């Protein structure tokens, strides 16, 4: 059972939320993501993709703060999705020391830079905003361990596609996990770039 092999603090949170049995998608995906491979995860809405993203991110960071630079990045389409993801993370990280920060295009880049400078473990952002942060030295990618993309279909849009390509060229080494309902042909192109040797977890 995937939940049994997670960090004790994560299991404690799952028990609190009465999440006992993993979904079929979680049973298949969590061990593959924990292995450290790049992964394309596709499953219908309601399969537990967002919870999987949160659990595997916290697992990768051992559910503890460390250093100042983000060790995990979660990319989403827009401000609304960013705030939703932040709230979803907050359920697990409330009253814990691990630091989650949310940024988006409507928030002035200088504000984001100064707040990130104070120290962040998990950064939730959009591809365009993250690219801007990298270009202006507003965030370091040196400690990055995992980059996940929620509902990754939006990366097929030209501006987001360009931004994610620029972002991944800035990152030297990192695990990438893309969550989607269906693997868009445009997303498959990433295999020639940052999604090298990617594994696929598909649940229909």
UniProtKB/TrEMBL annotation:
<dbReference type="InterPro" id="IPR014001">
    <property type="entry name" value="Helicase_ATP-bd"/>
</dbReference>
<keyword id="KW-0378">Hydrolase</keyword>
<dbReference type="GO" id="GO:0016787">
    <property type="term" value="F:hydrolase activity"/>
</dbReference>
<dbReference type="InterPro" id="IPR011545">
    <property type="entry name" value="DEAD/DEAH_box_helicase_dom"/>
</dbReference>
<dbReference type="InterPro" id="IPR027417">
    <property type="entry name" value="P-loop_NTPase"/>
</dbReference>
<keyword id="KW-0347">Helicase</keyword>
<dbReference type="GO" id="GO:0003676">
    <property type="term" value="F:nucleic acid binding"/>
</dbReference>
<keyword id="KW-0067">ATP-binding</keyword>
<dbReference type="Pfam" id="PF00270">
    <property type="entry name" value="DEAD"/>
</dbReference>
<dbReference type="GO" id="GO:0005524">
    <property type="term" value="F:ATP binding"/>
</dbReference>
<protein>
    <submittedName>
        <fullName>DEAD/DEAH box helicase</fullName>
    </submittedName>
</protein>
<keyword id="KW-0547">Nucleotide-binding</keyword>
<feature type="domain" description="Helicase ATP-binding">
    <location>
        <begin position="30"/>
        <end position="201"/>
    </location>
</feature>
<dbReference type="GO" id="GO:0004386">
    <property type="term" value="F:helicase activity"/>
</dbReference>
């Amino acid at each position: 059972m995937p939940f049994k092999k997670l960090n004790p603090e994560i299991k404690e949170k799952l028990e609190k939320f009465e999440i006992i049995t993993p979904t079929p998608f979680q049973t298949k995906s969590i061990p593959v993501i924990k292995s450290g491979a790049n992964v394309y995860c596709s499953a219908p809405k309601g399969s537990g993709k967002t919870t999987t993203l949160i659990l595997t991110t916290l697992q990768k960071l051992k559910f503890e703060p460390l250093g100042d630079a983000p060790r995990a990045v979660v990319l989403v389409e827009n401000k609304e999705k960013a705030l939703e993801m932040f709230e979803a993370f907050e359920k697990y990280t409330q009253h814990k020391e691990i630091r989650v920060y949310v940024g988006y295009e409507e928030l002035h880049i200088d504000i984001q830079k100064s707040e990130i400078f104070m120290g962040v473990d998990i950064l939730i952002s959009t591809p365009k905003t993250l690219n801007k942060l990298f270009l202006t030295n507003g965030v370091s990618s040196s400690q990055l361990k995992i980059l996940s993309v929620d509902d990754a279909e939006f990366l097929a849009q030209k501006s987001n596609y360009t931004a994610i390509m620029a972002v991944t060229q800035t990152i030297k080494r990192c695990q990438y996990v893309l969550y989607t309902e269906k693997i868009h042909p445009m997303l498959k192109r990433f295999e020639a770039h940052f999604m090298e040797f990617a594994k696929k977890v598909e649940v229909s």
